[in-house]
Specification:
heterodimer, A: 458 residues, alpha+beta, elongated, B: 502 residues, 3 domains, four-stranded antiparallel sheet, 17% helix
């Protein structure tokens, strides 16, 4: 009985002292972790690298051995465990994972890590890591520590770079040949809404399959965009209204083929309205947009307004209209982006003119054709994928249209790829299917349009 | 069985205790090393004091561990103490005293070789390290709490002031942004103008020279910017409360796709910078920068062709005597920076500088009117303003008129407008200005299918007031279209640019 009581007393005393020591360990750990200026917000951006040189790894490991600094779950290794761990190092299966502090060159994390664990998010280390460069220096010595810092050996750099793009609403300058725009003024009138005023240019019309410079006019004008609540996506507006006028444009290159088939024959005006009209009549319809574009040429040119050097005949697209319903954020295509789709109808009228330098006349060759018969119509659909943020942003859309008056198809791709939403390229290609080009003298097929893009958004 | 269980329990207790002892040792060693070796990152604070003779007896002699002599504070004017502590942290609510330094300042007697008398030596040593204070806390709490209260009282008395610390890194100076920055006021406009424009622009402070009286903020009386194609001058007497004025002579053309001297004109005029409001707040004032000049048709064709640093075709476009006006406004009505340029010349075709023979006809091509209106946008790669960008976007116009001449090169009276379009214009500027010291810059302009590239490099500097730059101007041939009769195949020009006082 006495022995049992003695044993119990002894055990309680041990427990008491153990708890006391545990408390002290806890306090010291808290003190230790708070000695440094905390830079945890930058952990993923700090310089990180892995040493895979097996000879150098051995050198460093042996320093730990000689200083008896190897620990496994806080306890020093016994001989058997040491031999087992050393064998892994000798087999060349161990790497060293390091990380430097954010504001200086000192190492703040050092770990021996088995090669098989390298792709695990929380790898199982060979031994306990060292979380302090000064302690590490004490173990490996200043020479080896200096070598580790210098990174003059073979290593794999894993330092993360931030690539993230967010929309700004102060100025937005988008410079490209096909869809330039400059947002130069913005204001908020209520809570988190936004009005944006922009100047824009528009060269070409995709939905009559005359992209870029294949359309003889560049529309320039002004635009107002409204967000009822500011969004991280600048295309997620509530409504947008644009007005403009056409300016004569030509192929931006020296043509070695036939002269330009289409030209401007009068002064044109353009209007577009686009917005989330359906959300006012349907629930959960924020992703649906209705776009209506109208282009018309109310004023005809006189002979003196045209400056051709010689007599020529040409076509002119005097009017077009496009009605489109689109759904953004259709579904998530995993890491590839967000799908979107649209359906619509477009119509355009084609006139033919003759500019005669001898007679000094400029005449319409289709006066006998009924106005409505000058129009051709397309049903079109498009499906695309769009990805924003990160390092690379892109918008790739396939468009297919059926001319149900003449019975041919037009199809193609329009795309834009950007780097950090700053530099990029626009590219469009459309091809006629079942269409005889000679029948449609004003069409060129295939049509290829491209332009570099520079964007400054802040 | 009971014996086995008993021995297992005893063994595990001993083992657990020895493991904890090892962990304690390791932690104490790590903390000690950290406090001794880490010079930069220690986020600690300290209380400096000189012990007084009437201080508490318990504090006059503080016991230490490992059989070291007790710490006895010395009372001497040259000796002070620093009690370093941790002012709380994550999961740490209270102060933790860490160590005490003794700082001895010994002033050397006499002078050195160069008579530098009275140099002082500072000797710092740790008199109570972390283990000592930890042991004090565990075994002699009364003494520890007296030290603790010293610090606590110090913090209460200095609640509104910054407590001195040991952190050597400066996170505020190293702050980075990932997306570049752009100022919302005139800061970017003024910093760009100071680096690139030939005129004086206001500054917040300016340091000139240095030497014994370094720190004085004065600007030179004369301000000069001279290159082979342009001269600008202003004097302090031309400064006034709302801005300043400058005089300028120039052989350049802003709108037309010509190299300097190629227009065969000489422009002479004045420039006025005026604050329309808040003249003392240069970053928020609305400035109007006005250039007015008369551009004379100086017939400088032979002079252009004689200049060895210009490699280009002979001029083909006549530019008549014109009135030139340029305006720049800083963010009027919260719009971007607006630039407007206008030049209108007299329509006199009787004395052309250049007549071209085109298909056996004698033609003289003139540009009488030029106009350019752009908006400027600025942004910088980081808040250090090392890489500075500016984009000008807008529209430009220039006309080209063809006058017909007879075989004896007399004006026949026939004039035809051959070009009369409004065109988009785009210019991208870049400056590399490390530590606010401009080193190089470039600009790239595209108008009417012709590119104009300008690049400069600082080659010489005598103090910030005298600088010499090497500039290169390149004019391309028309890109992706045929060259028109009144256009050249482009050219290149080199020049030196001297700046003083700007």
């Amino acid at each position: 009985m006495k022995k049992i009581l003695l044993l119990i007393t002894f055990l309680f005393t041990q427990v008491f002292f153990a708890q006391d020591a545990q408390q002290e360990i806890g306090d010291l750990k808290k003190i230790y972790s708070n000695l440094e200026y905390n830079t945890i917000a930058f952990d993923d951006l700090k310089q990180k690298w892995i040493i895979s040189d097996p000879v150098f790894v051995r050198e460093v490991f042996n320093k730990f051995v000689s200083k008896n600094a190897l620990r496994l779950r806080g306890r020093a290794l016994n001989q058997l465990t040491l031999i087992e761990k050393a064998k892994e190092v000798q087999d060349g299966n161990i790497l060293i994972d390091l990380r430097k502090r954010y504001y200086d060159d000192e190492i703040e994390y050092f770990a021996f890590i088995p090669f098989s664990e390298i792709d695990n998010f929380e790898p199982k280390l060979l031994v306990d890591s060292v979380d302090d460069g000064f302690f590490l220096k004490d173990i490996v010595g200043s020479v080896v520590y200096g070598k580790l810092q210098e990174q003059s050996y073979f290593f794999s750099n894993l330092t993360k770079e931030i690539f993230d793009t967010k929309a700004g609403y102060y100025f937005d300058v988008n410079v490209d040949a096909v869809d330039p725009s400059v947002m130069f003024w913005s204001t908020t009138s209520d809570y988190r809404n936004k009005f944006l005023l922009s100047l824009f240019g528009k060269w070409g019309q995709d939905y009559i399959f005359m992209p870029g410079w294949y359309f003889p006019e560049m529309i320039v004008g002004g635009r107002i965009t409204y967000f009822d609540v500011l969004s991280g996506d600048p295309d997620d507006y509530t409504y947008e209204v644009s007005f403009g006028t056409g300016m004569a444009s030509h192929y931006p290159y020296v043509s070695i083929g036939n002269e330009q088939k289409l030209d401007k024959a009068g002064q044109s005006v353009y209007a577009k309205i686009s917005g989330q009209a359906l959300k006012y009549v349907m629930d959960d319809a924020e992703d649906y947009y209705i776009d209506l574009e109208v282009f018309t040429t109310p004023v005809d040119f006189e002979y003196s307004d045209m400056k051709f050097a010689s007599t020529r005949s040409f076509f002119s697209i005097r009017n077009y209209a496009v009605f489109k319903v689109r759904k953004e954020r259709l579904f998530n295509l995993f890491n590839f982006g967000m799908a979107k789709a649209a359906l619509g109808i477009s119509t355009y009228s084609v006139d033919e003119y003759k500019y005669d330098t001898k007679l000094k006349t400029f005449s319409d060759l289709r006066t006998t054709t009924d106005f409505m018969n000058k129009f051709e119509h397309f049903f079109f659909g498009e499906f695309g994928v769009e990805k924003g943020g990160g390092l690379v942003q892109y918008d790739i859309t396939a468009v297919l249209g059926f001319n149900f008056v003449e019975g041919y198809l037009m199809g193609g791709i329009k795309s834009q790829i950007m780097l950090s939403d700053t530099f990029g390229l626009q590219f469009r290609i459309y091809q006629g299917l079942g269409m005889e080009p000679s029948t449609y003298g004003y069409r060129t097929t295939p049509t290829v349009v491209f332009s570099p893009v520079l964007r400054i958004n802040y | 069985m009971k014996k086995i269980i008993k021995y297992v329990l005893i063994f595990s207790m001993f083992f657990g205790v020895s493991l904890q002892a090892q962990q304690l040792d390791d932690l104490l060693k790590k903390i000690d090393l950290k406090l001794k070796k880490d010079r930069k990152y220690l986020n600690l604070h300290y209380y400096s004091f000189q012990p007084e003779k009437n201080m508490d007896n318990e504090l006059k002699s503080i016991p230490r561990i490992e059989e070291k002599d007790p710490c006895v504070f010395q009372f001497d004017d040259g000796i002070s103490y620093r009690l370093v502590f941790l002012k709380g942290g994550i999961e740490l609510d209270s102060l933790e005293l860490l160590f005490i330094d003794e700082i001895k300042v010994a002033t050397a007697e006499g002078g050195g070789v160069f008579g530098a008398a009275g140099a002082s030596n500072v000797d710092t040593s740790v008199v109570l390290d972390f283990k000592d204070l930890r042991s004090l806390k565990a075994n002699n709490y009364g003494t520890y709490s007296k030290l603790y209260n010293l610090v606590r009282r110090f913090l209460i008395e200095n609640e509104d002031q910054e407590v001195p610390g040991t952190l050597q890194i400066r996170p505020d100076d190293e702050m980075k942004t990932s997306m570049g920055i752009s100022s919302r006021d005139n800061k970017d406009f003024l910093s760009f103008a100071r680096v690139n424009n030939p005129f004086i622009y206001p500054r917040e402070t300016r340091r000139v020279g240095g030497g014994i009286r370094g720190g004085e903020t004065t600007t030179p009386d004369h301000r000069v910017d001279v290159s082979f194609s342009r001269m600008a001058y202003s004097h302090k007497v031309m400064d006034f409360s709302l801005g300043n004025a400058s005089a300028e002579i120039s052989f350049e053309d802003q709108v037309l796709n010509l190299l300097p001297w190629q227009g065969m004109t000489l422009a002479a005029g004045f420039r006025l910078l005026m604050a329309l409001d808040k003249p003392r707040d240069i970053n928020n004032a609305t400035y109007m920068d006005v250039n007015l000049a008369i551009r004379l048709d100086a017939g400088l064709k032979s002079l252009f062709e004689a200049q060895p640093y210009i490699l280009s075709d002979s001029p083909v476009l006549n530019v008549p005597t014109s009135f030139v006006a340029g305006f720049s406004f800083t963010r009027p009505l919260s719009l971007p920076f607006i630039n407007i340029y206008f030049a209108a010349g007299q329509e006199d075709y009787t004395a052309p500088n250049v007549i071209l023979n085109v298909k056996n006809n004698n033609y003289g091509y003139y540009s009488n009117t030029q106009f350019e209106s752009t908006m400027s946008f600025y942004w910088n790669s980081s808040d250090r303003l090392t890489s500075r960008f500016r984009v000008d976007i807008g529209m430009a116009y220039f006309d080209v008129v063809r006058a017909t001449y007879n075989a004896s090169k007399k004006f026949s009276g026939s004039v035809t407008t051959v070009k009369d379009d409004i065109m988009p214009v785009f210019t991208l500027h870049y400056n590399f200005v490390p530590s606010d010291n401009p080193l190089l810059g470039a600009s790239f302009k595209v108008l009417d299918g012709v590119a104009k590239l300008k690049a400069w490099l600082k080659v010489f500097e005598i103090s910030p007031t005298h600088t010499i730059r090497l500039e290169t101007l390149y004019l391309s041939a028309p890109i992706m279209r045929d060259r028109r009769v009144w256009e050249t195949e482009g050219g290149i020009m080199f020049q030196l640019r001297y700046r003083y006082g700007l």
